[in-house]
Amino acid sequence: MDTRYLYNFIDDAKEDSFFSIVIEEKIGFSKKRERSGLEERLKVCRNFLEASYVNYHIFGELDQIICFINYDSSSFSVRAFVGQFKQVLYNLDPADHICVFYSEGFTGAEPLILETLFILENTDYGLVLGKNRAIPSSYLHLCEESRQVPSFPKPDRLAELLRSRNFDEYKGALASAEYHYTAAYNEENALNISIHNDILSRIRSSVTLFFLENSFSTDITSMLLPDLLVRYNGGLGFIREVARALDEYVSDFTPTPVSKKKQQHIEDMLEFINGNISTVSLSSLSGHFGLTGEYISRLFKEQYDMNFTDYIKKKRFELATGMLRSNPDLSVTELCRQLGYQSRSYFQNIFKKEYGITPDAYKKQYHKRTSD
Q1: For the domain that residue 314 is a member of, what is the CATH number?
Q2: Spatial CA neighbour of 140 closest among 78, 98, 93, 95
Q3: pLDDT tens-place string over residues 155-193
Q4: Which domain holds residue 85?
Q5: Quick one: 315 exposed, middle or buried, by C-beta within 10 A (0-12, 13-18, 19+)?
Q6: Are 2 and 139 in a shared domain?
Q7: Half-sphere exposure of residue 282, counting CA atoms within 13 Å on the CB side?
Q8: What is the dihedral sign for C-alpha 172, 174, 179, 185?
Q9: pTM above 0.90, yes or no
Q10: Within this chain, do residues 113 and 231 fall inside the same structural domain, yes or no?
Q11: Is 355 helix (H, G, I), strand (E, B) or coil?
Q12: Same domain, 333 and 361
C-alpha cells in the first residue's frame, strides 16, 4: 500500500477524525472478471461517497478496494455509514461474495494506517471463515469490541524487562503477541484491531528505547511503525524481526566483568537475600557484610543494571507470581506477610501497576487457564 497519497490526503483534511473501509472479493475469478468487478465496485463506492458529502481517498487493485474517509466525529455515525455502505455493495453483488471490514475512527495518520495494514494482513489470511471461501454477510465482523482481550504487559513493564536484561520473559511476551495475531477469530470473538495496534506500539517503543540507550543500530530504531509493518510484511513479520534483533543484541552483549572478590560478594549477598526476603534492606545487608550501602548499590548497578531497591522489588514480584501460581489457596494477606509487605493495599497497588491486574485476579486467571 503506497502511503504517500494517503499522507497528502490527511495533511489536507478538514476534520480531525478518520476511518478506513476495506472491501475484499472472497472467491476466485479470472483476471478479466476480477478487473471488471473491481472497476464496477470502485464506481459504486465513489458515487456513494460523493453522495454522502464526505472527504475521501480511494484506490483498488485486483480484488481489494481501500477507502480512507475524513469525517466530523461530533455529527457522524461511523457504524451507520458502514451499514449503508455495505448494503449498497450487497445490492451490487447479492451472492454475498464481498467481505467488508472497517476501522473505528482515530485521530491522526499513524493509527489509521496501522488499522488498515492490520485489516489487509488478516483478510489475506482469510479472516473469519478461511482463505478463498465466500463469506455471507451474516458472519461479517465490523471490528467491534473483542470479548476476549489479549493480556499483554504494559509499556513500563516491557521497558523494565529489557533494562533488567530479562530477555527470556520479554521474548515470551513477543511469543504471546504472535499467538494473538495468529489466533482464530470467530463470531463469538469479534476482532478488536485497536488492541493489536496497541500491542505493536508497546513492543516498538520499548525495544527502540532499549536499543537507543545501548547504542545498538537496527531498522527498528530508525523507522516509523507503519513503515516497519510494510517492510516486514505486517505485524507477524515485525514481531519476528524484533525477536531476531534482540537475539543479535544478546549475542553481541558482553556483561561487565567483575573481579573474583566482587563476584563472591554478590553470591554471598544473593544467598542472604533469598533467605531473608521478607526483612532484607540495604542497611541490614550493609551491617551483615560490613560493606557500605554505596558499594552495595554500585555493585548491583554494575551486575544487574538496576539499584538494590529495584532488584529486591523484582525478586519479590518473581516470588509473588510463583507463589500465586503454585498455591491457589494462598491469600494476599499471607503473601504480603511472607514477602515483607506491611500494607496489603500498597502491595496490591504496586502489583497491579506491574502486571495490570490485582494479585487475586492474577491467581484466578492463571488457575482458570490451567484448569481449562
Answers
A1: 1.10.10.60
A2: 98
A3: 888 988 998 888 889 998 898 887 766 553 333 333 444
A4: 1-143
A5: middle
A6: yes
A7: 15
A8: positive
A9: no
A10: no
A11: helix
A12: yes
